[in-house]
Each structure stands twice: as structure tokens, then as C-alpha cells.
Amino acid sequence: MTRTNQLDLTEGSIFSKLLQFSIPLILSSMLQLLFNAADVVVVGRFAGNNSLAAVGSTGSLINLLVNLFMGLSIGTNVIAANYYGARRSKDLQDTVHTSILVSLACGVVLTVVGVIGSKYILILMQAPYEVLTLATLYLKIYFGGITATMIYNFGSALLRAKGDTKRSLYILFGAGVMNLILNLIFVIFFKMDVAGVGWATVISQCFAAGAVLVILLRETDDFKLDLRKLSINTHILAKIVKIGLPAGFQGIMFSFSNVIIQSSVNSFGAITIAGNAAAVNLEGFVYIAMNGFSQGTLTFCSQNMGAGRIERIKKAVWVSQGCIIVIGAVLGALFLLFRNQLVGFFSDSLEVVQAGVRRFWVIMTTYYLCGMMDGMSNSIRGIGHSLTPVITSLCGACLYRIIWIFTVFQIPQFHTVYCIYVTYPISWILTFIANVIFYRHYIKKIQA
């Protein structure tokens, strides 16, 4: 294999290699989130609070429908990184072609489900009447172009498998600039409201999908995509599904619990929904900074598992955890310090800003716990045990949150937005502790 655009994580300084892998990934995710936040800022500033609430209320539903298939892209990353570390050329080639074909199938399924089912699920989520029509329109446009999103995510997962996170950064920068410009044109000049935001997202995602396909088509190593070889290798697919399906179900369970939480937030009206949406978008910047190292842990463990470097895996996991804690704590403190100004970017309504700040005080002081939980989940997944993080997430996060909403939250004196938000840090702690226990068990079993 050529060494261009590759990063061998089985050799060299662990901290240095994690930085080389994670920083471009963090920057690309930051750009993606920044431009996604531009969607919310533009619609909030130039289309009003109902439009802001309409776009903001769809995030948990989008994640619910998309996460199962996004889990398969995680399976792609793990399997491809494992074959890369083990230098299994033929298997790696089969993984590339199987993954791209799977991404197309995922996109078609999501388009059908999303376009047909969005309105009915929003009604079940208690979306207020004044935002239901706008939210439904946005979702139909979004899911109409979801195939491009699937292609990009599977393609970038393949690039990450060999340590290449830089080119995804370049792609997302181009797509983000395009998205921002189209937002301004569609919403401000053509008065397209949420439809403009939706179409801007779809067009920019098509650009990103096209770019990643061009990169794979022009590769000169075992990651090269040859359209004539597109086919499903059932053995490879089974491995991707074994790793990816549990990861997808884990995402679905988190999203399902978040849908229930969003439904509870929705019951407090459009102002609270808008403030919550603004806060969630801002929290995303802290999350992806931590998640860059979490993703680094996943690929690091996968490559070294293929190479049989278990001691290196053990060191990398705790180096990554330290990075996550520092980043989460520092960024959380900075965001709290400038909380009013940051939430104020999304709306000039004082009530909306206050609603967003209420969420900030709970989440930003504890968000590093979420990063630690995800980092340990990916450590377990990277060494080949994808079902365990699903079980720990189901018990420690999802079931706990659902039980809380249907019990404690229903008590009149606890029927507050604060009572909803506090479920997050408690669930992160419970899940992290369970993941640490299982991780240590599996490492000892591998070394036995």
C-alpha cells in the first residue's frame, strides 16, 4: 500500500497519532455543525420563532430514523480498519465495494420511511400545531435527499479506516460553504422559509457525496472503488452487520429516549422548543470535539486489534479518556461563560435565550461525562464486541431516561424542564461505569 493519505496507528507515539487522526476529524465535524447551526440561525433570524422551532424539533426524529443505518457505517469503519491493520488486501477491497452498495440501499429505505412517516411521528411527538406543517415539509425535503448523506458517511468511514481524516475536512468545508450560501439565498432572498433550509442541506450533501466518491474512485491503494466491481460480499456484509447493527440499535435507543424527552420539552410550547433547539446546536460543538477522540479510539483499537497490539490498545483507551475529559470540561466552561451571547445568535427573543440557558446550566457542566461514555463504548466496539455497548446503553441510559419521564417527571412538583434535562448526566455516569467494567473484562479475556 502507498502511504499517501494513510495513518498507521499500530506504530509510533499514541498521543501524537491520536492527535493526527482526531484533530482533522474534529475540525471537519466542527465545520459541519457550524454550517448546520447556520441553518437554525438563518431560519430563526429571518423566518421567525415558529420556523426555528419547526427545524429544531426535527433533530431527534432524524436521528431516530437515521441512526440504525449510520451504525452500519461504523461497522464499515471497524471492519475496514481491522483488515487494514492485518494487511488483508482482498478482504479490504471487498469491504469497500460492499459498503458503497449498502449505503445506496440504506438511502432508498430511509427516503421511503422518512417521506411517508414524518408527519405521523411528529404528531406522536406532540409537535405543536403551529409548527407541524413546517416541520413536516422540512423533513420530507431532508429525507428526499438522504441517499447522498448515506453515501458520504459510508465513504468517509472507509477513509477513516486508514487514518485519513484530512480529506473529509476539505469536503465538509466546501459543502458547508455551499450550504451557508444557499441558506442565505433561499431563505432571505427567495423567502422559502424552512423549505429553503431543507433544499440547501440536500444540495450540499449531494456535493459531499460526489466528492467522496471521486476520491475513492481515484485511490491507488486497496481503498480504490471500481464501479464495475460493486457487489455484496455476504461474508463481509455479515461482519459489517455484526458490528454495525448493534451500534445502530444503540443510536436508535438513544434517539428514542431523546424523542420522548423532546416530546416532553414540546409540551412546554414553542418558546421552550426554540430555546432547547438553540442550546442543542451549541452543545454539539462540545460533543464533536470530544467525539473526535472517541472516533479515534474506535479506529485505533480496530487497527491494533488486527495487528495484535493489545498493550497498545490499553494505553490508547486511557490517553483518549484523558483528552476527552480535558476538552469537555474546558469547552463546557467557556460556553457557560458566554452563554447569553451564544444562544443569542439563534434568536433575538429574550425568552428564547433564557430557555436555552436553562438547558446550558445542566448540560455544559457535565458534558465531559457523555464523552467518556462514548469513548468507552467505542473502545469495546473497536476490539470486536459491539453488542455490549448496546446493552449498557439500553439499561444505563435509555430505560433510565424513559422511566424517569414516565414516573418522576409526572409528579407535579417535578414537572419542569430542569427535571427533564437532569436525566442526561445521571444516565451518562451509569452507562460509563458499566462500560468500564465490561471493557476490563474483555481485555483480560483477550490476554488470557
Question: What does this entry show, briefly?
Answer:
83% of the residues lie in helices and 0% in strands. The protein has 448 residues and is an all-alpha fold. Helix 2 crosses helix 5 and helix 10 (270-307) runs parallel beside helix 14 (367-382).
Jot down its keywords:
globular; 448 residues; 17 helices; 83% helix; mainly alpha
- Average pLDDT for all residues: 88
- Relative helix content: over 70%
Shape: globular
Tell me the number of strands.
0
Q: Given the structure, what is the number of helices?
A: 17
Q: Which structural class do the helices and strands define?
A: mainly alpha
Rounded radius of gyration (Å): 21 Å
SS strand fraction: under 5%
Q: Distance between the terminal alpha carbons, to the nearest Å?
A: 33 Å
N-to-C SSE series?
A: HHHHHHHHHHHHHHHHH
| Uncertain stretches of 5 or more adjacent residues | none
Q: Main β-sheet, in a few words?
A: none
Overview of the molecule:
With 448 residues, the protein is mainly alpha-helical. The protein has 17 helices and no strands. It has helices at residues 14-46, 49-56, 59-86, 89-124, 129-144, 146-161, 166-189, 193-218, 234-266, 270-307, 310-337, 339-344, 350-363, 367-382, 387-406, 417-421, 423-447. The protein starts with 13 loop residues before the first helix and ends with a helix. The mean pLDDT is 88.
